Amino acid sequence: MTGLVLKLGPHERVLINGAVIENGEKRSRLAIMTPNANILRLRDAIHPEEVNTPVRRVCYIAQLVLTGDADAEEARMQLLRGIEQLSQVLTDYDSRTQLTLASRAVMEDQHYQALKALRSLLPREERLFAASRA
């Protein structure tokens, strides 16, 4: 079997190509067979009021493409510009690796993969902000 397999908890919601789908009472697995389907777990969604850091801003742009609220072509330059700005600050090897993956994913219109790579930077960004406040 190929495709993405989603494992959903009871009553978990997921957005697939603009449609919100809610799981039933029990855990379940869904196999998404359509290539390039836009999928976002709503528990992972960044809400507009949470867009308050540089990494979150770039993640949010990728998320808007996945939800169908932004055109992928129009968002491409914003995403690449944001990734470039992050690469000037996050200079360690792991961050650079994730930013390279995100940049490649954007160029290949793989916005879920871009979001996944960018989200991996959120804990690092939080640690940097915490250290600067101390």
Task: Describe the strand arrangement of the main beta sheet, using strand numbers.
Answer: 3-2-5
How many beta-strand elements? 5
Query: What proportion of the residues is helical, as a percent range?
Result: 40-55%
Structural class: alpha+beta
Estimate nothing, just give the exact number of structural domains.
2
Q: How many helices does DSSP assign?
A: 5
Share in β-strands: 15-25%
- What does the main sheet amount to? 3 strands, antiparallel
What's the average pLDDT? 92
* Order of secondary-structure elements: EEEEEHHHHH
Unreliably modeled segments: none
Shape: globular
Radius of gyration: 16 Å
N-to-C CA distance = 50 Å
Describe it for me?
There is one protein chain. The protein is built from five helices and five strands, in the order βββββααααα. It has 134 residues and is α+β, with helices and mostly antiparallel strands. The chain has two domains: 4-43, no CATH class; 46-133. The strands form two sheets. Strands 3-2-5 form a three-stranded antiparallel beta sheet, covered by helices on one side. α1 (54-67) packs antiparallel against α2 (72-89). The radius of gyration is 16 Å and the shape is globular. It starts with a strand and ends with a helix. The mean pLDDT is 92.
